[in-house]
Design goal:
By secondary structure, the chain is an alpha+beta fold. Helix content is about 30%, strand content about 30%. Keywords: Signal.
């Protein structure tokens, strides 16, 4: 092998080793905020890993680390505005970690009530008394848990 060819192969090996360092930069807080809002309102389907990375881009405090066997939960230091209302916590459920295979993303509102969020989301109360509506193959739900209103999107149900 010529010395030129050997140098080219060595250079190619160095480029291959450096490739992970050239990965896409972390999104801006503005981009991360927009995409997280779209995920919890059924407008953008993210993978659980993408959702976790976007939450981390907002410098959220990880209450429960996302991993191969756990969901992720994040407390926001700066509230995120969802439907014009402040959100202080996000949760992701990775369907691959459970039995149902359904990914879902939840935002917890700081002060807004269930009727207010349901109205802003265009989600009327159904016959069962729940605030859930179909958005394509997904379900958008507004709930009240432990006195805190939440909105979530469950993906690929149909």
């Amino acid at each position: 092998m010529s010395s030129f060819a050997a140098r080219c192969l060595a250079l190619a090996g160095l480029v291959t080793l450096a490739a992970p360092a050239l990965a896409a930069p972390q999104p801006s807080a503005e981009v991360a905020s927009r995409q997280l809002v779209e995920a919890v309102t059924c407008k953008r389907h993210l993978t659980p890993a993408q959702f976790a990375a976007l939450a981390k881009a907002l410098k959220a405090t990880e209450l429960q680390a996302y991993g191969p066997l756990s969901d992720g939960e994040y407390a926001l230091t700066t509230p995120l505005l969802v439907l014009g209302q402040p959100v202080n916590r996000l949760h992701l459920y990775d369907g691959a970690n459970g039995e149902d295979g359904i990914d879902s993303y939840t935002a917890y509102f700081t002060t807004a009530g269930i009727e207010q969020i349901a109205a802003l989301a265009g989600t009327p109360r159904n016959a069962a008394g729940d605030y859930t509506r179909e958005v394509g193959r997904h379900d958008l739900s507004v709930r009240q848990d432990d006195g805190q209103t939440s909105i979530d999107c469950s993906y690929d149900l149909r």
